[in-house]
């Protein structure tokens, strides 16, 4: 995809482009035999993703920290589609304890799991630490999803094995992965406040989302598991994500308005990668506007992806056993 395609909405090789909506890219797909978890599904791209997956018949579990907003999202989906199967469970990705509770509650539902959409995120927050004492953007956008995915992995693999239906994991990354610290991930300074940049830390966490999907895909392939893992950049969409940069983003939008997408367009890549039959067996890739594209050099670095995996694994273990 090039700038012209983004501006004009001209479809890429997949047949879809920046103007395609989540409903359009999933038209005719029957997802009634699928169960999906969408993190951060109470607003923005996650809510639209949950809505469209449910519209296609999937049983959707929204993981959200704000239960009032999550129940509002559920109501909105049911108002439009009374047959929708939607549930909400509390999930705070800032807290490893909350993630473990969420997984226990999900397991107690006794349902299978075909799709995990790691969508929740925060952007450009001032320096702060998560409940477990980790820099907030890295903790929420990457580390929380890393633990969540690992805790749900056996369920995803078993569901794929018993049903013969490919499982899919989708990580919401961003083009912002190109704007990170010069070393990519600051392994030895993950909590360093003095060198903290809200923009670069967001970029770092979004780089981590791609590297996570890449290394996960490699591991799943090695094991012969029938589960794929990919990352997407949804486009530029005005959502609550801009809460820490509202003025900056609105000024930026004035000059770049032609590049911005609506929320239904913003959810297209997540829904496409989660449901589209043409992506069977496609794993470890990065998508923009429903088309595969090469991410930046750091995001293609296999050693960095392995290093991040080991780092995240050790960090989660040490935080879980203080
Ligand atoms: N919008 C864009 O232009 C854009 C561009 C590139 C990538 N993305 C990515 O797309 C994803 C969705 O963003 P969006 O634009 O739809 O923003 P959004 O409307 O703010 O949605 C993000 C969701 O994540 C939730 N969340 C944040 N912190 C959480 C936590 N600790 N635990 C659980 N949930 C948490 C938010 O809940 P609360 O309301 O409770 O905070 C919200 O529901 C993000 O990963 C973002 O990085 C967006």
From TrEMBL:
Ranges in a coiled coil: none
Q: Where is the signal peptide?
A: none
List all membrane-crossing ranges: none
Give the superkingdom in one word: Eukaryota
What is stated as this protein's family in its record?
Belongs to the short-chain dehydrogenases/reductases (SDR) family.
Database matches in PANTHER family: SHORT-CHAIN DEHYDROGENASE TIC 32, CHLOROPLASTIC-LIKE (PTHR48476)
Name the record gives this protein: Uncharacterized protein
Q: What is the lineage of its organism?
A: Eukaryota, Viridiplantae, Streptophyta, Embryophyta, Tracheophyta
